[in-house]
Amino acid sequence: MTGPATRSDGGGDEAPPLPLAGYTIAVLSHRRQDPLGEHLSGLGARVVSIQGVQVLAQLDPDVLRQATQSCVDRDVDDFVASSDFGFRQWIALTERWGLHKTLIDRLTNARLLARDGVTADSMREHLTSQIWSTAASSAEELLRYLHGQAVKGRRIVAQLDVPSLAEACHALRMRGAALVEIPTYRAIRSNQWMQVRRLADNATKGLIDAIAITDPVSAEHLMWQAAQSSRLAELVVALRESVELVCLGPLAAAPLVVHGLQPELPAYPFMEDTADTVAAIVIRRAIDLSAGQRHLQIRGHAIVLDGRLHPLQPGPMHVLRALANASGRVLSPAQIRDCVPSWENVDDHAIEMAVSRLRRTLPPGVSLQTIVRRGYGLALDPR
């Protein structure tokens, strides 16, 4: 059985486009395929997933020993274990340092939260207390669970295996929790430098509608690659004026803030909340025009005419958006060029070619008017 459909101007029954259909969104994270991208794809977006940071399953003994000492100094109220491997490696180090017994004593009376059953089994080798885990096998869900509770004054220890989880820990700290992070990984710039550099280039060319970043190393990597290709200034302008920028939390945003940027942040530092924030701000980019019963919506790389999606190429789309923003005014090629930052060195002939391609690809009901010696105007035919 199918759900309700909406009749399009083509006369057939056709479901309306998903809210993010026609938009291109880049996700920069430690994964090649991030859950954040899956949420956005489910809303119809064209998602470009890029690994901006490489996570190594390596422990920094100096960092961990200092964090472990903080754990054993006082009683622990909650302990979150994010991975089987990380937990076992950490425990092995505490045995080498002579801190194992003291640590286990501190954790024994804590509420124990494990990402999954495998992690819980590793914990049971050392801890006999009841251990809770999530059906989703997600450390993020454990931290979300803690966010739903009164945490002020509670002492929480969180073993982390990926950098994005640090945002949820930071948020708990801001709510008054005494939180100790046990990072059982190292984060470095990924070796996917060409994809990161291409993202910076595409953002300056207006080919990306939004970028979502989950960690500070990925954010720093993006800016560094832009600087390496001598496009940092252009990228900063694009991120300030034409590309929406969303970060999982303030830690991921910090490398961007130093460049004068102000990324949007979700209310809560979790993937679903971040996807909702991206969707909300990207949808605001749409330009809506109406004439009679006809409705045109201009999205990132497509238009929606009377409920039907029509993809367009970047050049024609730049022209269409410039004309739609002109509120009925006629624009000369020079004025169209001024509306597109990446077209600073484009000549009038190239703009005329983009106009010609746009005219050929527009569906019936939308037309371009050529005003001799003045330029072009956009017309939406009523019905």
Question: How is this structure best described in words?
Answer:
The chain contains 15 helices and 19 strands. It folds into 3 domains: about 20-55 and about 190-285, Rossmann fold, CATH 3.40.50.10090; about 60-185, 3-Layer(aba) Sandwich (Rossmann fold); about 285-380, Orthogonal Bundle (Arc Repressor Mutant, subunit A). β3 (about 25-30), α1 and β4 (about 45-50) form a beta-alpha-beta unit. The chain has helices at about 35-40, 60-75, 85-95, 100-110, 115-125, 140-145, 165-175, 195-205, 215-230, 230-240, 250-255, 270-285, 315-325, 335-340, 350-360, and strands at about 5, 15, 25-30, 45-50, 55, 80, 110-115, 130-135, 155-160, 180-185, 185-190, 210-215, 245, 285-290, 295-300, 300-305, 310, 365-370, 375-380. The strands form 6 sheets. The protein has a 5-stranded parallel beta sheet, with helices on both faces. A 4-stranded parallel beta sheet has the order 4-3-12-13, with helices on both faces. It starts with 5 loop residues before the first strand and ends with a strand. Helices cover about 40% and strands about 20% of the residues. By secondary structure, it is α/β, with parallel strands linked by helices. α2 crosses α3 (about 85-95) and α6 runs parallel beside α7. The model is unreliable at about 1-10 (pLDDT under 50).
